[in-house]
Write a structure and sequence with these properties.
Oligomer: homodimer
Structural class of chain A: mainly alpha
Shape of chain A: elongated
Order of helices and strands of chain A: HHHHHHHHHHH
Radius of gyration of chain A: 23 Å
Number of strands of chain A: 0
Largest interface: A-B, 55 and 55 residues
DNA sequence: GAGCAACTTGGACATGCGTACAAACAAGTG
DNA sequence: CACTTGTTTGTACGCATGTCCAAGTTGCTC
């Protein structure tokens, strides 16, 4: 029949991504992918010699796509904190509604074979780097609590974004962007120092201490004690 | 040999949990579990007729254990916000350092067969209920931003806690409790109204609006405008 | 020390897996 | 029309899987 090679390749990748996401990688058979894509298993083997090759090709595409999306999105504004929100939007939009492969890439990362992980780690690192730079930009603007562990913050943000995929169902009454914004807000309210409203550095410092209690439990107490003395005149 | 049945059962469950976590459920074979537990596959079949039976038994135990742990932990204090932090600690401690089965239960939930999910949903719901009640307690104390979608908040908290499992390595220089506290703080700083320090209800309201931008983009703007008028005297 | 229940053993089974490959086929080129 | 190239087909191989079971072994009880 030799219909259309490129079209069939797309069908294979789409079917594979959907099944990998739904059932996991190990539980998805080449035969099942072929059935889903309306062809015989041989046609898959013809394009991708092994199951791992298919997996790598799939994920490489996925991470490239989302990287492009995020890069384009954050170019739309100069506000470093707004960038964080927009990046979160794209990340979650792709994760929930877009390419299933990205879902697999984020959630099954730890279970890929070492060889597969190595083949993809450069791409993934480049994506994480974009997030790091967005977060660093936000931190440099002075609008984050100072002294944060930014890698931890990136992981926190990633975790928040990725975790939605564990419960989100397409029939949810909220739109994906709504959830993304709400999560970004929960995230932002946590990390932002709200400088415009409460620029008191002592306050930010006390919050930082609360964030790393093992470093100095006493800083917050000192702040509280300080406040006791000047009780009654601290807010607008 | 008939060494010790109970001991062997433990060995099976431990080996199964470790392998399920490491390689995923589908990729873990009964033979591999047997090898890990130093016995023959038949001994596993003798106790658990099918792989699914083993899975269910494993997870039931795991969720019971963490539920007990959380319940015991939150009984240690009356402070509703402190309870949130302590619950997070137990959750993450079990997830990262404790029973591998809990890890599987949280992260592979969506990929269990429908039958297996049904068999476990009651247990899991009971655990989620504890979290909901902790969060509701915190909300009732008035120390959270009012008007939050509490289910969304629970999912947010769960997601944050669970996501650590996707990157945490045992050789991390931070202790699990340190990470748990830092995450709880990032979480708490986001949701808490910091009433003791900034009890201004207008401020909390504006933050709420920022949290649900699609409901009323203008509330925050109104707050900002309001503040413009009284510029210069709003903090301690 | 005989009997018994609990447990383990080793081997077998049907099934489904990833992969391989020769043959058939389709479309384009000269 | 013949020839080539890219693609699909159908079938096959060897292997690993979940599950099963008859026979063997152990420690306990009277």
């Amino acid at each position: 029949m030799n219909k259309n090679s490129e079209e069939n390749t797309e069908a294979i990748l789409a079917a594979a991504a959907a099944l990998f996401r739904q059932k996991g990688i190990a539980a998805t058979t080449i035969r099942a992918i072929a059935r889903e894509a309306d062809m015989l298993p041989g046609s898959i083997t013809y394009r991708y010699a092994t199951k791992d090759d298919l997996l790598v090709a799939l994920m490489r595409r996925a991470v490239e796509k989302v990287r492009d999306g995020v890069e384009r999105m954050i170019a739309e504004t100069d506000d470093p904190v707004e960038r964080l929100r927009l990046a979160m939007r794209v990340h979650m939009r792709v994760l929930l509604d877009g390419d299933d492969a990205f879902h697999v890439l984020m959630l099954d990362w730890g279970r890929l074979s070492e060889k597969t992980r190595d083949a993809l780690s450069k791409e993934r690192a480049r994506y994480e780097q974009i997030w790091d730079s967005v977060i660093q930009g936000a931190a440099a603007s002075g609008r984050l609590v100072p002294g944060l562990d930014l890698t931890l913050l990136r992981r926190f943000a990633f975790g928040v974004g990725n975790s939605v995929a564990l419960w989100y169902q397409p029939d949810d009454p909220r739109s994906i962007d709504e959830i993304a914004d709400a999560y970004a807000a929960l995230l932002g309210l946590g990390a932002l120092a709200h400088d415009a409203r409460h620029p008191d550095p002592t306050y930010a410092y006390a919050r930082l201490s609360a964030l790393y209690p093992w470093e100095s439990e006493r800083k917050l107490a000192r702040f509280e004690a300080e406040k006791e003395k000047t009780k009654g005149d601290q807010d607008a």
